[in-house]
Amino acid sequence: MSTLTEAPPPLTPTAPEKKPPRKRGRLVPYWLLLPGILWLLVFFALPMIYQASTSVQTGSLEEGYKVTWHFATYWDALSEYYPQFLRSVLYAGSATILCLILGYPLAYLIAFRAGRWKNLIMILVIAPFFTSFLIRTLAWKTILADGGPVVGALNTLHVLDVTSWLGMTSGDRVLATPLAVVCGLTYNFLPFMVLPLYTSLERIDGRLHEAAGDLYAKPITTFRKVTFPLSMPGVVSGTLLTFIPAAGDYVNADLLGSTDTRMVGNVIQTQFLRILDYPTAAALSFILMAAILVMVTVYIRKSGTEDLV
Amino acid sequence: MTFVNWLKRHLVVIAGLLTLAYLLLPNVVVTVFSFNKPKGRFNYEWQEFSTAAWQDPCGVAGLCGSLSLSLQIAFWATLGATLLGTMIAFALVRYRFRARGAVNSLIFLPMAMPEVVMAASLLTLFLNMGAQLGFWTILIAHIMFCLSFVVTAVKARVMSMDPRLEQAAQDLYAGPVQTFLRVTLPIAAPGIAAGALLAFALSFDDFIITNFNAGSTVTFPMFVWGSAQRGTPVQINVIGTAMFVVAVLFVLASMVISNRRTKQKA
Amino acid sequence: MITVTTNKTDHGGDIRLSGIAKTYGSFTAVHPLDLTVPQGSFFALLGASGCGKTTTLRMIAGLEEPSAGTVHLGDQDVTALPPYKRPVNTVFQSYALFPHLDIFENVAFGLRRRGIKSVKKQVGDMLDLVQLGEQARKKPHQLSGGQQQRVAVARALINHPKVLLLDEPLGALDLKLRRQMQLELKRIQTEVGITFVHVTHDQEEAMTMADTVAVMNAGRVEQLGSPTDLYENPRTTFVANFLGTSNFIEAEVDSKSGDDIVLKAGGGKLVLPEARCGAATTPGGKVLVGVRPEKISLTHADDAGEIPEGRNRINGKITNGSFIGVCTQYVVDSAVCPDFEVYVQNVDRDTRLVPGADVVLHWSPAHTFGLDAAQDIDAGVEEGAAA
């Protein structure tokens, strides 16, 4: 007790400070924001403006480019490359749906059924990231190789007949077909689907399942009426995190596809880095950006979720 | 019938494990083919077992140079993005200020933008400014696209922090600076670490943005890309496998250590 | 100005709030409030959630800036001082123990921030005081709720604050532990002699521990006094209902006889000592007559003749009786009040007292209190039940 009854504390503030109310650094947030926001403004927002300006320039590499408000570039780019645009949407859309179908059970498994294996499975989902995705994508060349076991199995099961009929494959090949590209896209962006799904599933109180069961819901009804609606935030952010990068990707189409599977990313890359037709490349990139922003906005509005990642 | 019932009950588990297998299959292939001795320039078909590549991982011209360059860029990009991102995250969670909506959009947009769009527009900026493409332009680009992810990770952690902890520190005679250093920062540390780890992984593995803004500088992903056109040396499989194993061991070790620590204290 | 008188001479730990108020936009959390808490007292702010009690506490701690008014500690105006410069410490709701520091470092935190180098002895003594000497190197999450609570108290007390503020400190504990900690806190307060200001929504807790209780409602202090005073002489229906249970009868002032007022209610007469009436007593005026359930005796109608003269009586019929151990709680339907509550001690149980039985309720006029009739009879009922 001695410690408590000792002399009063040494802490006694000197001369009473006068009001007015304490100022708690009203400028602090702005100083905290300044460097990062400046970085984003200069290296993210400003480039967009440069790109917009480039897209309406005419000229040549030798003579230099000038802004001539040549909007025809957009029309020309669209009419020449609309197949690639369509392919991008189609491939990225298919990959997103496949990711959702494949990723949901895995996320569900980690969230509710993995028990003490939970951490290990989490590690196994994330660990492949540490092997460069290009190396892993190249591995699909081996897996889907002509005459390999996978193609052989698909052939025996007559899956390839179906996909051929759908125009996804041709003959006995999988490599260099749309199927290979979609398969690669699905593979590459699957973790971006699984992780948000897992996060929102994990937040669901396990007792809700029991409550639903108690109220005469069959497991499938419980899933449809309780689990899935509650995981919607994860579904929304997962689909966006999959679709957006997939739509702009050119690596899978390049490594696993052929000239018939070129996506809009491939066109932008070639125009920019090989053909050096900057206005066309800028216009294409701008259209892609606008299209994705519109789609994302509509999608977020429809699904009614505000918080994304 | 019992088998059907068993199947029904474990359908989710089976489907989940199949997906997991799909995710891991390429890594298995990469590992197996790191022991291959290919006949031609490309390492896509199994020929015969060999440990030659493992004995000489740097045996291909430029490979280890590109790896070291990627590690350096990832290091500095992580440092820059974590610093700037943490500051933004604190400003967003802890302060009221004008233009919050605009700031939030500016943070969000880079994550909602296909990489190829950011890559192309950044290149137009650099070309217009006449910047020399290379190490610095790559670093600038990497900090830019890692920033938003760090903000998101740190923000989540700071938001879940009980504001009473900082009030308790103030109540116990810690001024604003002391409160930040002794309480806020240590508690936010896991979020900052998660953001930094994410930034490192994103930067190290980035290809698309680097491809546009690297000029003639070759990072590790650029090296792999180039070799996919010219011929894939077994050594890239060796590096890929080694990084996978190191990452898994690192995580497992940290888990074992933290487990042991809690057990000791309990 | 509400003042609690004290005969102590040292006023260094007095808390004086003058006209203190807090508004958030158009919402007023605390209406201008004058309050003096004398040095060394155990003071409780009691009220339902959202009544402004925590805001008041936080203004004393410096965690909330008052919109108006001043806070004095002793003779010193601390209104403009940030929390880290006030000689006041807080035990936070759900404790706010630093999760990244062990128990020792949590307790040493305040000492270290004030530049005290050798903290080992002090922290050790303090941990022994709260019986946690063995747990010094554990992290907060490894302790039980009761232990965490004691760490929170130790962490604040080690700084010898002039005032210790406790924000619902026992809210997270189970009932039994709460009772134990109430006595423990009371003991510590008596030993260290520091002013304690305790915020709680639990009326029993406030009454067990505090010397003085301020009952708050909607940003205002309804009544302030000792626990007995508040319980026996509530000034408003809110206080009467929030602290325990009260029965109310609407009555009309009939006449005065000596120190008593005679009231008419439902054809019968009731007597109320004038001193216990908080309302105007002009003949013909309305008064709410209150009586606590445990003050009432219950006699079967057949034995009505045995009731002594001079007691207030009401006839009724039992509608419900629940046996709860120490007593039986009856609900009685009467002409003046449809659900009169009566608690009868289980001494000699009258087997005739079952639902449907005709009974006479009677109690001493000295246990009757009178309130202004122009207020809500049920004010504070919900809040009291929730607490």
UniProtKB/TrEMBL annotation, chain A:
It is found in: Cell membrane. It is a multi-pass membrane protein. GO terms for biological process: transmembrane transport. The keyword Cell wall biogenesis/degradation does not apply. Residues 85-299 form the ABC transmembrane type-1 domain. GO terms for cellular component: plasma membrane. The keyword Transport applies. Pfam families: BPD_transp_1 (PF00528). PROSITE patterns: ABC_TM1. InterPro entries: MetI-like (IPR000515), MetI-like_sf (IPR035906). The chain crosses the membrane at residues 28-50, 89-112, 119-139, 175-198, 281-300. Residues 1-23 are annotated as: Disordered. Keywords: Cell membrane, Membrane, Transmembrane, Transmembrane helix, Transport. SUPFAM superfamilies: MetI-like. Belongs to the binding-protein-dependent transport system permease family. CysTW subfamily. This is ABC transporter permease. It comes from Streptomyces caeruleatus.
TrEMBL record, chain B:
Residues 67-257 form the ABC transmembrane type-1 domain. Coiled coil: none annotated. It holds the Pfam family BPD_transp_1. GO terms for cellular component: plasma membrane. Its main location: membrane. One of its GO terms (biological process) is transmembrane transport. It is found in: Cell membrane. It comes from the Bacteria. SUPFAM superfamilies: MetI-like (SSF161098). This is ABC transporter permease. Belongs to the binding-protein-dependent transport system permease family. CysTW subfamily. PANTHER family: PUTRESCINE TRANSPORT SYSTEM PERMEASE PROTEIN POTI. Keywords: Cell membrane, Membrane, Transmembrane, Transmembrane helix, Transport. The chain crosses the membrane at residues 12-35, 73-93, 105-127, 133-154, 183-204, 234-257. InterPro entries: Bact_Polyamine_Transport, MetI-like, MetI-like_sf. It is a multi-pass membrane protein.
